[in-house]
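Design request, tokens follow.
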């Protein structure tokens, strides 16, 4: 059995992101939402996610943009975020252990909380987020 290590390199980020989105794409709750929006643009989306998590977890600034606006009008609620987080934590725990792996889980938790709060605000007030 391979011993787990911490998230340290871009290859680790790619392993995390690829395994996570493989699970998301086949999830009966989240798969239809992600596949319906992303469609045949998965390579582009995955590259963007590599850059995002490389920036967030490794401090290598390769992501430029605003992650929230594309999510503002999605038909998602608490259950969707709970499922996303469960899958995120499981993917990390299956592949990694260490300080950065723990940070990845913490950052996912904080991002989910913030995104859900903002989605509820924008959908409840019929407003559009700034880009």
């Amino acid at each position: 059995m391979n011993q787990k290590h911490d998230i340290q390199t871009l290859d680790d980020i790619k392993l995390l992101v690829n395994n996570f989105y493989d699970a998301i794409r086949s999830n009966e709750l989240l798969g239809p939402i992600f596949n319906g929006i992303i469609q045949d643009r998965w390579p582009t989306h995955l590259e963007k996610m590599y850059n995002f998590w490389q920036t967030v977890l490794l401090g290598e600034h390769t992501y430029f943009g605003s992650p929230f606006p594309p999510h503002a009008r999605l038909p998602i609620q608490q259950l969707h975020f709970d499922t996303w987080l469960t899958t995120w934590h499981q993917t990390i725990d299956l592949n990694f252990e260490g300080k950065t792996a723990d940070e990845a889980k913490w950052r996912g938790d904080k991002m989910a909380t913030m995104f859900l709060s903002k989605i509820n605000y924008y959908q409840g007030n019929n407003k559009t987020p700034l880009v």
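Comment from the thread starter after seeing the answer: thanks! The domain at 10-125 is CATH 1.10.490.10 (Globin-like).
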